[in-house]
Amino acid sequence: METLFNKARKYFSRVPLIAFLVLAFAAGFLLRGGPESGHEHRAAEQSSQVPARVSEWTCSMHPQIRQPKPGQCPICGMDLIPVASGGSGEGLGPGQIRVSAADRKLAKIQVAPAQRKRLPLELRLAGKVDYDETRRKVIAARVPGRLDRLFVDFTGVRVKQGDPLVYLYSPELYTAQEELLQALKAQSRFERSELSTISSTAGLTVEAAREKLRLLGLESRQVAEIEKQGAPSDHLTIVSPISGTVVHKEAAEGMYVSTGTRIYTVADLSHLWVQLEAYESDLPWLRPGQEVQFTTDSWPGETFGGRISFIDPTLDPATRTVHVRLEAPNPGRRLKPGMFVRAVVHARYEPGPESMEAAPLVIPASAPLITGTRAVVYVEVPGSEGVYEGREVVLGPRTGDYYVVRQGLEPGEMVVVNGNFKIDSAIQILAGPSMMNPAAGGPAPGHDHGPAKTAGPVEGAEAGHSGSAGIPGEFRGQLERVYRAYFEVQQQLSEDRPGEAREKVRSMQQALGAVDMGLLKGAAHQNWMVVRDSLLQGIAAMDAATDLAGLREGFSQLSEAVSTLLDRFGGSGDKPVILFHCPMAFENKGAVWFQDHPDTRNPYFGATMLKCQDRIDTVYAGSGPDKGGHAHE
């Protein structure tokens, strides 16, 4: 049965007109209150079945078309549908629609209140243990010479502050000691001089000689010892400046060193840094001083703690992350620099100093329809059963299954959390303001405003890629950014990185929002409207997911939409588009995905079964110098 279904789906994906008509039929379901007679009925039969109150007819895909009698749309040629002067639209304002109880049940419309609450967020980050740079010292030669003895023979030795590390022979050091002894003798001769200038100069010379020795690496007690002995030494003992562990040994006995040559590195491992990677969407939840818990595979079942001491002011352009540093105590020195850790931050959203007393206003994450630049929710109108109105809102950060609402809603208002796409489609048919069409009474942004014309076959249509050859080059360039973002989503899922996948989904949403539909005409324009809706639904499914499994289910829906996109408009850019099929995904139901390279990276299983696939087909060969554009293997 599954094989038969897949064959049927493959067949219908090659018949753009049938899929287009089916979608248009479904989009008008809520408005008409149930199934209509279909496109096979003639206009005269349609007119006889419509109640007498119908005074206008419109196109389900071009709601700006309004005619006083039934017929065909002058743009796409579809049969017009009736717009009732009463019923669902009677007495309603712009952006409002009335849905009967039966239709609400069929559309599975559900509502939930906007409410104020402080939502705890469990933020998960990854990183590694590092040295505390303020507790790490490099022991280097301050004078040229020969290493006659190294008191520490290997790394890992623990030393105390003041312990000897190196016995260094240095002629330059010998000369500097002799200068001090001569300066002391001169001071002794001139201290009884009647000329104060001479005695003062002698004293300054002694202090300068002492300071020179200190700069060459001698401690004050060693300088005092030289003055006491009255004889210079040609060797210098270098001691440890801190207590800690020798973590690097970079020299050997007997070698000659110059000024600045590194000999040892000593680090205090009783306190360490933990360097975490946070994504842009994580930053609203992080602040200096915050307590963080983390674990490591080296000590399973044990939790360590630290405190955020620094958040990098710059973003890493390669990983699109910000470095967050923890200061963590290391009792027993069980944490080792280089260990990987998994951190958990328990945070709460703080609205700001001006509203610290009030909890943030939040709505379920499935409520807003997000286009990339706008967010729209549908609100149940109080006192009017079954009436909903669109409301543009300003969203704050997402916290788990909720979005923070900054503007546009009041506490207690009931927002649609399921069925909002269907309501939006019905309002588009009525030419009201909607997610895709913020201006009521006109076409969605990017629609053709030129003279109406009857739609025909898409110019340059090819087998397997309807309309792919007649698409303007500028539009293809915009599609390339959509494909590129999709490939990035697939890559992150194959690497089991849900946070990064969410970021790439948002990038794809932005790329899709930047596509200019006004570049397309005729049937190509109609095809894009259908494909765009499918892509938006796939993006919304991933955006509403709360875990990696949910993201992968949403990605399956998004991949089906990309399949339709490839079928209608073909690929774009220099890189190929390769179809993969995994027969074991979703409990052996199977699922497809696309890559721009042939090395299998399964997004549905990730590292568990990274190479799982039973079919690979090149659906677009790339537009390089030796490529033909489309290919099927």
What report would you give on this structure?
The protein is built from 14 helices and 29 strands. The chain is an alpha+beta fold. It has 5 domains: 1-109 and 419-423, no CATH class; 112-119 and 354-418, conserved putative lor/sdh protein from methanococcus maripaludis s2 fold, CATH 2.40.420; 121-132 and 269-348, Elongation Factor Tu (Ef-tu), domain 3, CATH 2.40.30; 134-267, RNA polymerase II/Efflux pump adaptor protein, barrel-sandwich hybrid domain (OB fold (Dihydrolipoamide Acetyltransferase, E2P), Beta Barrel), CATH 2.40.50; 456-633, Oxygen-evolving enhancer protein 3 (PsbQ), four-helix up-down bundle (Four Helix Bundle (Hemerythrin (Met), subunit A), Up-down Bundle). The strands form 7 sheets. Strands 4, 6, 21, 22, 23, 24 and 25 form a 7-stranded antiparallel sheet that branches. The chain is elongated. Residues 1-52, 441-468 and 626-633 have low confidence and may be disordered.
List keywords for this structure.
conserved putative lor/sdh protein from methanococcus maripaludis s2 fold; single chain; disordered N terminus; 5 domains; 633 residues; alpha+beta; six-stranded antiparallel barrel; 30% helix; Elongation Factor Tu (Ef-tu), domain 3
**CATH topology of the largest domain, what is it called?**
Four Helix Bundle (Hemerythrin (Met), subunit A)
Give the DSSP E fraction (strand runs of 2 or more residues). 25-35%
How many DSSP H or I helices?
Answer: 14
* Overall morphology: elongated
CATH class of the largest domain equals Mainly Alpha
The H-level CATH homologous superfamily of the largest domain, spelled out, is Oxygen-evolving enhancer protein 3 (PsbQ), four-helix up-down bundle
